[in-house]
C-alpha cells in the first residue's frame, strides 16, 4: 500500500514536470512571433521571481504592459514593435498566473498584489511609469492605482476583468471548461472571438499547455479580498491619474454598455471609449487601431 502511494506521488511529480516543460517550450515558441529585439530576465521579490520581457530603448520613458489571465506577456507580440519605438517596455508576467514567473508564496489580498508590483518597479529603478493592462492586467492596473497612484503617470485599461461590473455567469462556465481540456480552450476562444479573429497557433498552443499544467502555485484560489473585484465608487473617485478605458462593443464577459455607464463618471480624469468591431482581446483583434490610440493617449 505504501509503495503504491509513493509510486502515485512519483507519477504525479513526473506528470507535472512534463506539463511544465511542455508549457515553457510553447512559451519560447510564442516568442518567435516577437517582431523586435528583446531581453528576457527575472526580478526577485519576496513573493517570488517575476519574469520580464523587455524591448525598446533603455533611455526612453518606461511603459509597463500587464497581460490577460493565462495569456502571459507573449500576447503583446502584435503591439510591441510600434510601442517599442517610443518607450522602454517591460512586459511583466504576473506572478501567480500561467507564465514564466516563479511564485514562492501566494497572495493574501489586493494590497499584497500591489506591493509585489511596486517591488518589481523598485528593482527596475522605475520611480513612475505608464501602464497598459488588458483584462486581468487591467484589473491589476486599477488595483495598483488605488494603492500607489504616485507610481503611475497615465494608465490604459482594456476590457478590465470585473473592476466596474461583475462577469456574466457564462464566463465562469467557459473558464471552468478550459481546465485540462483542449476542447474547452477552443470553445472559450470561439466564444470571445466569434468569427472575427483567429488566434495564432503558437499562442493557442501555449494557452492550451498552460491549462494542462497543474501547478497549485499558478492556480491560486482567489480570496474574497482578492480578485476578481468590483471597485467601490469611493475607490474609483479617488483615482486622479489620467486613464483611458477601452471597452469592445463585442465584449461577451459582461455587457460593455453597462460597464461604460458605470465607469463614465467614476474617476475625474477618466476617458471611456467603446471600440468598434472588437471584443475582449482587442489588442490582438485590431492592433493597428489599438497601437495608435494608446500612443496618442500617452503622448498627448
Automatic annotation (TrEMBL):
Residues 62-287 form the AB hydrolase-1 domain. It holds the Pfam family Abhydrolase_1. Keywords: Hydrolase. One of its GO terms (molecular function) is hydrolase activity. GO terms for cellular component: membrane. It comes from the Bacteria. This is Alpha/beta hydrolase. It comes from Bacillus cereus.
